[in-house]
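User: Could you write out the 3D structure of this protein bound to nicotinamide-adenine-dinucleotide? I've included everything you need below.
Assistant: Certainly. Input first, then the structure.
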Amino acid sequence: MTELNNPTFRLAVAQFEQAAAMMHLDPNLHERLKMPERSLIVSIPVRMDDDTVRMFTGYRVQHDSSRGPSKGGIRYHPDVNLGEIAALAMWMTWKCALAGLPYGGAKGGVRVAPKKLSRGELQRLTRRYATEIFPLIGPDKDVPAPDVGTDAQVMAWIMDTYSQQVGFAVPGSVTGKPLSIGGSLGREEATGRGVVDVTLEAMRHLRLDIENATVAVQGFGNVGSNTARIMREVGAKVIAVSDVTGGLYNAKGLDIPELLRRFRGDGQPLRETKMGDWISNEELLELDCTVLVPAALSEQITHKNAAKVRCRILAEGANGPTTLDADQILVDKGVFIIPDILANSGGVIVSYFEWVQDAQRFFWKEQDIRDRLHEIITAAFHRTLQFSTAQRATMRMAALMSGIDKVAQAHLARGLFP
Ligand code: NAD
């Protein structure tokens, strides 16, 4: 499929092929798992506020559903394309399997710059997109969640649209929704909290001290801002954060609570807070720090800048932030990589808790959610670390091989239909 031929999909497939070769994956399964199970492209007509009708393109890709309903976020971004969504869906399959969640992998997206739409336009776009992908989604089939450019409000509109179609409220049709309609405590911060949980385990393993650690975070959205906040709460010094416009750097450590109050609360652009020196995103990635957290888009660390990356730990909050050739350069430099499918799995783990709570109609306390997240993600970290040592594989390959193996076992148990 030529539509899939884009750099992000090539990266996901190249990672898969490397892991498949190392684990001597059955060649028949290899061919099945390389391509998504199902891909839907939809046209979304939206009546704009000026009464014109604009067309947008949307996608929903289900990579694998052998272990349960497929699960994955919805991205609103002007560069969204089928290949990127298919790559993200494949990573979701390995991520859910690695964490031991009873899900397959999916992803969706719309090619749109959401900040350029009014609230009304965004709602009409979301509802029409949800209607177009309605045949594929549902609590037992495929469950969307937020990703870049979408949030709890977008999930609420999708949940409502789904519920209108079937005629009754179906909270379990999406995760990452507001508490008032069956959302979960702790879901919003979950990905960032998971990034911090695994980073602390990596620091213990490397005998590094959190009090002396410096952290740089690229991306100040859901994942980046929660990671920065919790890193600071556990005692690290967050020396830099950035968003699409650029970053703030303060060698003494940024006052993250105050920054969040101005940035999220008052809507002040990062630069105008003047809480640090203004740096570019490229400069942020090359800062001397203990922990670097890419938490924006994919392919940020490439063969061009990998040699200049100076962190001790790379905790991948974003999906696919490191290209395959950059990976090798970082490993050779001795950077300890916590790969995306492990580092950012806190989001889908708490999404799973949300889905379970919706099904039970019984809601848990926030501390229970944090404890269970901690238990699952740190266990996945240690399994991956042990496997990586035993197999003499990198953490990324160990994580991928563990995830792929669980999916392969499911396919072998179920057999090939018909
Ligand atoms: P978001 O939309 O809340 O935030 C994205 C951030 O990245 C914003 O601060 C934006 O300004 C910044 N950004 C965008 N383009 C950039 C660029 N070219 N350079 C630097 N910064 C840029 O999105 P999010 O939900 O925080 O997702 C961030 C990453 O984490 C994505 O790769 C996503 O797939 C991944 N992820 C998200 C979740 C989740 O629960 N939201 C879970 C797992 C993984």
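The chain has two domains: 2-170, 190-343.
User: Perfect, thank you.
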